[in-house]
């Protein structure tokens, strides 16, 4: 039987995502940019990424206002090929953002889907 994740295990969900995907930084924030949990690799700053995520969230909100609908994913690619991927999702009526910083060519969709399910499991306890 799978052991239920407890409220203190948001960090475990992100650490697992980070190590499985080989991502540089993984951050879970609310819509105000408050960091709920983070898992940076050595040398990477989760707080800096969270600030960028807050800016992206505001842009997604503005897109929704002009009738583009609810955002499923936002991605920004830098000149080195790294991508910042932000996945907004709802838990108990609250919108959260799961964000990763990944090197070029790293797959992420299936892993972030699993992490979203993990966050929802933790949140429900």
What's this, in brief?
This protein is an alpha+beta fold. The protein is built from three helices and five strands.
Molecular structure report:
- This protein is of the alpha+beta class and 125 residues long.
- The chain has one domain (7-124): 2-Layer Sandwich (Beta-Lactamase).
- It has three helices and five strands; from the N terminus they run αββαβββα.
- It has helices spanning 10-21, 46-68, 109-124; strands spanning 25-30, 35-40, 74-77, 83-91, 94-102.
- The chain has a five-stranded antiparallel β-sheet with strand order 2-1-5-4-3, with helices on both faces.
- It is globular, with a radius of gyration of 14 Å.
- It starts with 9 loop residues before the first helix and ends with a helix.
- Residues 1-7 have low confidence and may be disordered.
Mean pLDDT score: 81
Spatially, the strands of the biggest sheet line up as 2-1-5-4-3
Q: What is the CATH architecture assignment?
A: 2-Layer Sandwich
The value of Rg in angstroms is 14 Å
Series of H and E elements: HEEHEEEH
Q: Specify the biggest β-sheet.
A: 5 strands, antiparallel
Tally of alpha and pi helices: 3
Number of strands: 5
Question: Which descriptors apply to this entry?
Answer:
Beta-Lactamase; alpha+beta; five-stranded antiparallel beta sheet; 125 residues
Give the secondary structure arrangement, pairings included.
Elements: H1 10-21, E1 25-30, E2 35-40, H2 46-68, E3 74-77, E4 83-91, E5 94-102, H3 109-124
Antiparallel strand pairs: 1-2, 1-5, 3-4, 4-5
Helix pairs in contact: 1-3
